[in-house]
Design goal:
- InterPro entries: Anti-sigma_ant, STAS_dom, STAS_dom_sf.
- The structure is a single chain.
- The protein has one domain: Transcription Regulator spoIIAA, CATH 3.30.750.24.
- Helix content is 41%, strand content 24%.
- The protein has five helices and five strands, in the order E-E-H-E-H-E-H-H-E-H.
- It has a five-stranded mixed sheet.
- Helix 1 packs parallel to helix 2.
Length: 123
Amino acid sequence: MSVAQNPLSVEVSLPREDVALITVQGYLDADTATEFQHHLANQLHHGRRHFLLDLSEVPFMDSSGMNIILRVYQEARELPGSVHIISPTPAVRRILDLTGVSITVPVSESTEEALALVDQPQS
């Protein structure tokens, strides 16, 4: 499938000043990963420390998407901050589990659950 059929849509909202809720729709792959990375970098630049990544509308993600999630996770941890994945689709959840990303990056079922984790002291 071409990118034209499955364009990436990324919406950013701010539940709190230091928290960016990033809602992703579409395929997160080699063709669209750069756009996703630009949105994350922009939020880091504007002082966001916590990233909630809503992947409930992402039917497919390859290693490009996972690498960006892990990169922002490492950058956020240094701030200190955090990254949380929200409601991944079954296909994306399977990739996260198989690669071990879900062990490193917390996966939540809702924005509220992820925000509660943001408020917990980091270990």
